[in-house]
Amino acid sequence: MKVVEGISALRSQVRAWRAAGERVVLVPTMGNLHAGHLRLVEVGREHGERIVASVFVNPTQFGAGEDFDKYPRTLDADAKGLQGAGADLLFAPPTEAIYPGGVASATIVEPPPELANILCGAFRPGHFRGVATVVAKLFNLVQPDVAVFGEKDFQQLMIIRRLTTDLNFPIDIVGVPTVREADGLAMSSRNGYLSVDERAIAPALHGCLVDAADRLRAGVLIDDVECGTIRAVDGAGLRCEYVSVRRAADLGDPGPSDKNLVILVAARLGAARLIDNLRCNLN
Ligand code: PAF
User: How far does the centroid of ligand 1 lie from the alpha carbon of residue 212, in Å?
Assistant: First the structure.
């Protein structure tokens, strides 16, 4: 596996692969990789011959007071994991390569507010602007045929699908189901912030989603399911930010005829902010 920091080396390698008729798949990450990320690489291999994984802790998607400074930087271990999973190239650019005109005054990509300002966007203003901006840059730099993202970040995936359509990127977006620990906790780099006691509480988040899906299927009203789930998350020892039942297709408010739903949750636990979601089909 090649490790590349510079844009011209990245571009010439990708150009050579494409000239040889090989499909290039991009797996964007912020590093500190776990089995969930490696699964993205595995799935990526089903969609093309060459895998480019990027590791870049993107400053513009962190708000003031968030964990940008302490976000774990583990590039050597990440490189080993990616090589083992079958990635062909690791792109690990410095900040100046991604934001050549500086971070503060960068040209930005603004996703539609009806997608970006709800759910996590309401608690992390500007977060999805930062995500959309860096993902658009990575798409321009790598020019992949396919890009792979985890469904754990369901709202992010939805916004990336929309930006791909709106900005006419000729890229297929592939979503990969969430990889969970044996006790149900969704894998996340931020799980590393949990103390032993907090780690024992954290799986309750997934349990609450499973209960919420059962209640929806039993015909309980959405408002009641949301309120009950917020109480259950708080009761388990987390601090719930939101529980919301949405249409899975576009994150809109579900009407009576909508059957394909997703339940999304965010909660704080110690120093960690945890998110998770569960699809729920009422057919
Ligand atoms: O999901 C992530 O790790 C990040 O938000 C992404 C998509 C790599 C953009 O920085």
Answer: 28
